[in-house]
Amino acid sequence: MGGCAIFHGMTIPAKKPEMRPRELKDASGWYVLVQWPDRPSEQVGGFCSEDEAQQWIDQDSDNWLRKRLGEPPIV
Predict the structure, then answer these.
(1) Distance of alpha carbon 30 from alpha carbon 47, whole angstroms
(2) pLDDT at 10
């Protein structure tokens, strides 16, 4: 299947991107570095703290990932 698997009718990448909180160089906030295994890295920003960025990873990144891959969100 070329790196993807079918799970309940949806296509899931074989490898999810690695996501890590990172502080902006000017120390004015935080972003999440999204490192894809097969495409360029991305930044998701606008976080006030490392905890807030980590919370986004823990609670919201799955829906972001689904949207990014063209899948409907989990409700």
Answers:
(1) 5
(2) 45
